[in-house]
Specification:
single chain; 2 domains; about 25% strand; PurM-like_N
Length: about 350
């Protein structure tokens, strides 16, 4: 009888929920697995610029619950893709809509979601021109997943990029942060928070158009702080542009109800997802004009200056606190609130 040693069992790495968070784990997954295989280099933007004028973006939506205060998965999918195009300074011209449906989803629910997506697209003024429908077995898709793809045309003098921030830029947010993520968590878990906490899901293409009209190429960076929230977006921009971003903590607008919910749950509102506000880096010379143009529209009426770009440590985001101290603003390693978009 011959004895032999068994081959050691090697446990391979596996995808975690946190790999979809928009934080550090997701950045590692993209950098180590996905972008090298696809040959993608340079900073990752909300949408791709093709040639000089065409902009292209795609996104998938797995939010749960599918209906929530302020919206549903259908309208969210349209708004999200329209906003991704807008963050590259583009006017949307066409969308596609693809469904992965789990067997057993009520037809009435699918009908309501489709009507909601169609209504959102009509309100934006962009047609849904193509799509796809697949059905999978029970337990394979958690009801419904949606993928939307958008094509847009770059506005004249619009060249925003995550890599274009420079020292002296003013940092703006177009409205209060944190409402979307807390609204989803409240609806999902039945936490009983005030019903006034609703998602901020809305299209931002008209707001961006007004900003470009006012500031042109001085609008250096546009970003919608979705997964990972404001903190992640600021860090992505600081890294891509190799600059230091300094934020006045007290200037960041957080609704009182959102702040209270975050404090109770031990969450940081800077890491909570948004779906209806943007972060902008604008040259000092055009900042006043851009802020005025933003505040003239409902979706930008609460625009706030929250900080500036400096010559500090490149790639770092620093928050200056009420007590006169400073802290480094990091991205999350994993997932704070999964399935929020």
């Amino acid at each position: 009888m011959t004895l032999s040693c068994p081959v050691p069992r090697v446990e391979t790495e596996r995808v975690l929920l946190g790999h979809g968070s928009g934080g550090q784990l997701m950045a590692e997954l993209l950098a180590e697995v996905i972008t090298p295989a696809l040959g993608i280099t340079g900073p990752l933007e909300d949408a791709a610029l093709i040639g000089l004028d065409q902009v292209f973006s795609t996104d998938s939506y797995v939010v749960t619950p599918r209906f929530f205060p302020g919206g549903d998965i259908g309208s969210l999918a349209v708004h999200g893709t329209v906003n991704d195009l807008a963050m590259r300074g583009a006017r949307p011209i066409a969308l596609s809509l693809a469904y992965i449906i789990e067997e057993g989803l009520p037809i009435s629910e699918l009908r309501d979601i489709t009507h909601s997506a169609a209504a959102a697209a009509r309100a934006v003024g962009v047609p849904i021109v193509t799509g796809d429908t697949k059905v999978v077995g029970r337990g394979a898709a958690d009801g419904l997943y949606i993928t939307t793809t958008g094509v847009g045309v770059r506005l004249r003098d619009a060249w925003p990029s995550a890599a274009s921030a420079v020292p002296g830029d003013v940092v703006l947010v177009s409205g209060p942060i944190g409402s979307h993520g807390i609204s989803i968590l409240n609806a999902r878990e039945g936490l009983g928070f005030d019903a006034d906490i609703a998602s901020d899901s809305q299209p931002l293409h008209d707001l961006v158009a007004a900003m470009i009209t006012a500031g042109g190429a001085d609008v250096h960076v546009l970003r919608d702080p979705t997964r990972g929230g404001l903190a992640t977006s600021l860090n992505e921009i600081a890294t891509a542009s190799d600059v230091c971003v300094e934020i006045v903590e007290s200037a960041v607008p957080v609704p009182a109800l959102v702040a209270a919910a975050c404090e109770l749950l031990g969450l940081d509102p800077w890491h909570v997802a948004n779906e209806g506000c943007l972060v902008a880096f604008v040259a000092q010379a055009s900042a006043d004009a851009v802020v005025a143009a933003m505040r003239a529209l409902p979706e930008g009426s609460e625009t706030t200056i929250i900080g500036e770009v400096t010559h500090g440590v490149p790639g770092r985001v620093v928050a200056h606190t009420l007590v006169g101290s400073s802290r480094v603003v990091d991205v999350l390693v994993g997932e704070q609130l999964p399935r929020i978009c």
